[in-house]
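User: I've been going back and forth on whether these two constructs are worth ordering. Before I decide, could you fold them both?

Assistant: Sure. I'll take them in the order you sent them. The first construct and its structure tokens:
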Amino acid sequence: MENTEKVSKRTSVRAKVFIDSSYEGDLLARAGVSYTVGREDNNLYNETWNGVQMLDQHQFPDGVDPYVEKGNPESGLLWGISDAKLAEKGSGDKEVDVAEIQRMYQEGPLLDGSAPDILVDDVDIEPNEADGWHRIQAGNGYGRSYILLNPTRVNKRLRYPFEVKEDGRYTVYTYYIRRGESSKVTEIIVGNGKMEDRVKLDAGAITVKGQTSGEWVALGEYDFQAGDKCYVDFTNNGEVTGQICADAVLAVKKR
């Protein structure tokens, strides 16, 4: 655990059982515990409120216009509004409940309910402030902070290291934060000591969906072997137009 007012200070807690009562269930995912996405059928565990339900005074009132262009169905529905029919009462599904997570993924690395094989957040990294990298406390990243490098003509690299436990093909992602001060293009290097892949992250080509300030962006697919000492390096190589922002890195093994 970490103190949100002093991120560098951490406390380890050991117990036989942990209850994840966080808003998004991040503890489950980081611990590799299996979980489900969506609502479970009432019959699965003989419960009452899990499945599909329609409650009085729990929905938008009639008369709210759902269209991009008011009164024009041909203009399409506003983001987040579905024209799907309500399923049978008490039934389950694999839909993402936007009331219980910070954002909705239309496409996302963990939408299938799988746990992240490897997740490295900025709090796992100790930035070298003397080298220009410094941590920013803010709520618009993957967690409560991220790491920044102000523009400089000296080449810099910040490494997010991780070790692979199983052979396989992995998709590597980084959490991109939409910030006006950030460089329009950032060169990111993915490597494992045997190869390096230089990826240009183009901010103009990234669409941040929903009411959020960030998006998981795939850097590529790579064949890693158990024991590989892998890394993702954030750099200021090339034509830098602003700050370099380094946030979480995620690696998901293809099933």
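The second construct, handled the same way:
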Amino acid sequence: MQSVDLTAANCRGASFKGAGMRNAILTYAVLEGVDLDSADLSHATGTRAIFSVANMNATNLSGATLQNADMSQANMPGAQLLATDLSSATLAGANLQGADLSGAILEYAYLGETCLTEAILVNTRLRGSDLRHVLLQNANLAGKDLTGVNFTEADLSGSDMSKAILTGTVFTNANVANALIPSSMYGMVTMWGKGCGGVAADDA
């Protein structure tokens, strides 16, 4: 199935479990509820494709272009999303526990209520993203550009945000207990956040 072209195809509920779909063209495809367990979609193009409630356990999406894709409530634990372009995508309620998002572009994406526990976020771009209600406990966000990110009611407990850029970042009712934040934002975050016991300021 290498380089398969499914442009605007309706594949709702289909099984592609373990399929090799590297470089697949999935633009506008409807993949709602599909089984992509362990499939290889690396370098696929899926702009505005619909992957809602899909099973994407350990799916390889590295290098894929998924701008404006709908991945709402997709089950993606352990997925490989290295350098994946998810800008302006919707991942509301998705399970990305343990997923590798190294170098992924999530700018202006909507990730409300997404589980990112134990996700790898090295060089992940999050500027302008909506992370309301996300689970980001113990996340390494140090030095990241978090300009305009909305962390309303997110769980950021134990996270490292030292030297992060927090211009216009929203922490309304976020749980920042035991988080490490830039000293310039210490007063604001402890004022806005909840569960602030143990919040520490870095020396930036």
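Notes on the second construct follow. The chain has one helix and two strands. The two ends are 51 Å apart (CA to CA).
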